Diaminopimelate decarboxylase
Amino acid sequence: MTQAQVDPAARTARRRSPHPGLPLGSPWPASARPGAGGELLVGGVGLAEAADRFGTPLYVLDEEEVRRRARAYRTALPQAQVLYAAKAFLCSAMADWVSEEGLGLDVCSAGELRLAAATGFPPQRILLHGNAKSPEELRLARRMRVGRIVIDGLAEIPRLAALAIADTPQQVLVRVLPDIAAGHHSAVRTGVAGQRFGFRIDGGDGAEAVDRVLAQPSLRLTGLHCHLGSQITEVEPYLAALDRLVGLLARIRDRHGAELPELDLGGGHGVRYRPGDRELDLADFAARTTRHLAARCAEHGLSVPRLIVEPGRAIAAPAAVALYRVLSVKHGTDGRTFAAVDGGMSDNPRPALYGSPYAVRLVGRTSEAPPAVIDVVGRHCEAGDVLVRAADLPADLRPGDLLAVPAAGAYQLSMASGYNLVGRPAVAAVSGGRARLLIRRETVGDFQAREVGR
Ligand SMILES: Cc1ncc(COP(=O)(O)O)c(C=O)c1O
Ligand SMILES: N[C@@H](CCCC[NH3+])C(=O)O
């Protein structure tokens, strides 16, 4: 990394970095190391080398980073059940890694469920949720004997109850809306009043859902579920959610004499996208939620339920780096410089959807050129297709250069589209100095293969 490319906030941290050349608190995987000639190694593999081998755009997924993060959750929350939220990014290897690290899986569609099942993921460790589950999805989940299903609508209760399997009641949780605003953008704040997710705690329909579930002998209510939002960097919203949920647990105990053994706080744990960004402190989250839950339960005379958490982004995002080749560099009339790359909103819709900020750096060559403010834009015909706005890049950036964007592992590929028939990028896993292709690049043949008439 040249001096010109270093974010000023990161410059101070860099002095104390355990990885020479990369700042502490950086959004790069922990394995990232600078190599010769501007190369950047992740998982012991040069990113420029990987781009040459597999082509671009390319997503490079650091297996050890995924495993390390999964293990960190188990260590921080040894009593809790940790479920990886598949929606952040799922492929068979990812399912294997989180399963091998002892995590469960949170799925929200038949597709995620089928993919996980095909890898041999233990169904007992799978939880299905979703605000619009089809009868077929409920049937599939029941047939696969998933461990838990989160009820998010009154109609699901009789539907699920009718899918009884003799002597094995389905364990369910009831999702409630805690009315707490948290998350990086209004579009992802699912736990705030007025949202369609879960039952209202105060409006009475939460209590009604609980009554109806308890009346079904083929369902076993194990707890309450909530999910506040995504990219939350403070612990306080989770503590507020615990207050509301424990209050409801106490009311359920008073009304039905039943103490529910589980409490699912959902996911939403925030990560760094740029050097110096805040992230949710996992140790702090674990210590304070555990303490708070115990204190609130003691106040209500309840035994302490087991916590469930569903981190997606915090496990997947920091594990991947997106690589793009610069195709053209243009100077706009208003003094702006644009570097157009071979990917864009079809592989990462987050900047266009939420204005999400990212870091970016040149890899594969060094530059002594002064820094310039450059918008890294995508290849799609939309003014909003800007991947990194006002990036600090060398002024001599030119076509053929390789750009690397860290924290690319969550909600990019899983929300990628077929726009302009560009095709979704390939994914390569890196580990111990070796790279292997996990997902090949999508081709026009894949699009044509779905056409059955003309
Ligand atoms: C119910 C539920 N659980 C878990 C997650 C995972 O969220 P994150 O990736 O922000 O941890 C989501 C998505 O935000 C969700 O809707
Ligand atoms: N897609 C969102 C996160 C949504 C989480 C789904 N509950 C993002 O990229 O920030």
Remarks:
- The radius of gyration is 23 Å.
- Residues 87, 188, 230-231, 350, 354, 411, 415 surround lysine (ligand 2) (CB under 6 Å).
